[in-house]
Amino acid sequence: MTDYTLARVDEALTELVELVETARTIPMSTSCVLPRERTLDLLDALREVLPPEVQEARRVVAQRDQLLGDAERRSLDLVAQATEDSEQLVAQATEQAEQLVTAARTEAYQLVEAARAEQAQLVSAAGVHAAAVAEAARIGSEAEQYAATVRGEAEQAATEVRDQAEQYAGRLTADAQGYASQTLTELVGTLQRLLATAENGLTALYRQDQPREGE
């Protein structure tokens, strides 16, 4: 739009504003009375000046509407695509989350079972150790009792053997003493008999050696 055209438009609009502002008001109403011919002239002048610009404005408006329509359709498409993508993402995220949760639960279950198994093994090992300790203690106690019994029986047997040996030794001693005493008695008797025999022999010899009467 040229400067001349702008000036004409400005003059026509200024005059129209003045006509409206100075127009006579209808009583009991907000309407006013305008001079028809002058108003139409001003409008014709504006029409003569504005057609190219109006066409351009119309084209711009049409383009704007088309752009707005395209933008709206594009926005709707984008919203729909975004909604679809978001739903897919949500579905994928949900599926992955469920998989992760399932995997986590499985791993947790496995860990718990492993812990329980390890605990059971530890408890079992502790039980076996305790049982072994108890069994060892029982065996040791029985061994000590058996050893004490054997020692007691051995001491008793040794005492009996000593007693029997002492008794046998006493009998042997008594028998030996009796035999020795008997032997000595018999020897004494034999010696006494021999002595008596010897005395009788000596007496007889002595008598033989004495001179007989009359020799």
Write the layout of secondary structure elements.
Blueprint: H1 3-22, E1 24-25, E2 32-33, H2 36-49, H3 51-209
Antiparallel strand pairs: 1-2
Low-confidence stretches: none
Oligomer: single chain
Q: Which strands sit side by side, in order, in the main sheet?
A: 1-2
Taken from the alpha-carbon principal axes, the silhouette is rod-shaped
Number of helices: 3
Percent of residues in beta strands? under 5%
Query: Structural class, judged by helices and strands?
Result: mainly alpha
Strand and helix order? HEEHH
Percent in helix: over 70%
* Largest sheet properties: 2 strands, antiparallel
Using the CA coordinates, give the radius of gyration.
79 Å
Beta strands, count:
2
Overall pLDDT level: 76
Q: Calculate the terminal CA-CA distance, rounded to whole Å.
A: 231 Å
